[in-house]
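name: query_chain
kind: protein
chains: 1
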Amino acid sequence: MNSSLFFKTIFAILRSNSMFGVIRSVKGARQRVVVSLSPNNVPKKPTIMRNLQDWYDEYGQSHQNPTNKKIHWVCVPAIFFSIIGMIMSIPKGPIEGFLGANASFLENWIWIPLVGIVLFYIRLSLKMSIVIMFFSLFCIVASSILASYVGSLFWFSLGLFVVAWIGQFVGHKIEGKKPSFLKDLQFLLIGPAWVFEQLLFGKK
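structure:
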């Protein structure tokens, strides 16, 4: 075999292998870049569970003005009461008569969301969950009695709901800050706890 032809062949093989090596290196580098940029490989920030005091502190940032505070002391419980009244106005439908004639008070859709609300507060504070539970029971009993004196519990509750929310926004206009729930809807449930914490336990 001609020696020049032999060396040319070897050189061609080495070149082809080096080219494949370069290609493989480039592909490997591209894969590493794709993997490193994958959302699944981005370090996740640790999830911090906020306690009730953390919620109070953040909620209180937009409730510093004394007038706005007093408005909330009235309007937040009123909104809570009105929502219960509206839910209690929903026709019983399939649950009517389910528990018998002597348990009509329990045959109401309000108990379903109420369980979820109490569980939300239990996760944050057993003390506050008990307070909210008793206030909710008061609202349910009061709404049942009120239904006998007003033409429509739903329309009465809706009117109270609208008036109370107008009061809320007037308070925030005075405060000069937006309502907290615009940042996180969970503040809609923190509001009642914050009010009762101040009214019952003196944390102004």
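note: The chain has a mean pLDDT of 78.
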